[in-house]
Specification:
Layout (H helix, E strand, L loop, with lengths): L2 E4 L2 E7 L1 H19 L4 E7 L3 H11 L5 E11 L2 E10 L9 E9 L3 H12 L4 E9 L12 E5 L5 E2 L15 E4 L3
Parallel strand pairs: 3-4, 3-6, 6-7, 7-8
Antiparallel strand pairs: 1-2, 2-10, 4-5, 9-10
Helix pairs in contact: 1-2
This protein binds inosinic acid and magnesium ion.
The site of inosinic acid has 18 residues, from strand 4, strand 6, helix 3 and strand 9.
Length: about 180
């Protein structure tokens, strides 16, 4: 098993890149049917979703798509703080549009819930949620996820965009924290 150390913690490979890519390709197939012919605005939630968004949008290959970014922060170390800070906001006119929110992972669900509320409040006609990863056992809010890549247990992970104290986002595979 491949292991890496970030700061004080050890992580062990749990989802190889080939499995991540397959999940994204399958998601893109489903999405294509729903979004073909629509002028969709994708909103990538930074920092974590940058790699997922990049892979998915290339796979989707849609003609009239637009892409924007929203930068949020809620995690400190290996725990969600429960409060979501907005570091870069949305400037786009969302009124009447089909919006697809691209998130790396839904954990407690607080982050994505806040984003949905903001997008709805700005007048989106349709809001869909696509998340690469989902931890159903950690979910604390009522939420409907339209596209889910991989369902995982309630463990802390890094890689493919996800970090532990700013490090680990660059790895192409996903690693799980080794419990001591
Ligand atoms: P939520 O608001 O609790 O759903 O948390 C969502 C955000 O927390 C995600 O967008 C991630 O940035 C971060 N997060 C949740 N779980 C993990 C994890 O296992 N590793 C790294 N970041 C995570
Ligand atoms: Mg995130």
């Amino acid at each position: 098993m491949k292991r890496i150390k970030l700061w004080d913690k050890e992580f062990e490979i749990s989802i190889p890149n080939a499995d991540i890519k397959l999940a994204i390709r399958q998601m893109a197939e489903k999405m294509k049917n729903d979004l073909e012919g629509k002028e969709t605005l994708f909103i990538c939630i930074l920092n974590g979703a940058f790699m997922f968004a990049s892979e998915l949008l290339k796979e989707l290959d849609l003609r009239d798509a637009e892409i924007s970014f929203l930068k949020l922060a809620s995690y400190s170390g290996t725990n969600s703080t429960g409060t979501v800070k907005e570091l870069i906001g949305l400037n786009e006119d969302i009124k009447g549009r089909t919006v697809v929110i691209l998130e790396d992972i839904v954990d407690t669900g607080h982050t994505i819930k806040g984003v949905i509320e903001q997008v709805v409040q700005k007048g989106a006609a349709e809001v869909k949620i696509a998340t690469l990863l989902f931890k159903p056992d950690a979910l604390k809010v009522d939420l409907k996820l339209d596209y889910v890549g991989i369902v995982i247990p309630n463990d802390f992970i890094i890689g493919f965009g996800l970090d532990y104290n700013r490090r680990g986002r660059n790895f192409k595979d996903i690693y799980t924290l080794v419990k001591v």
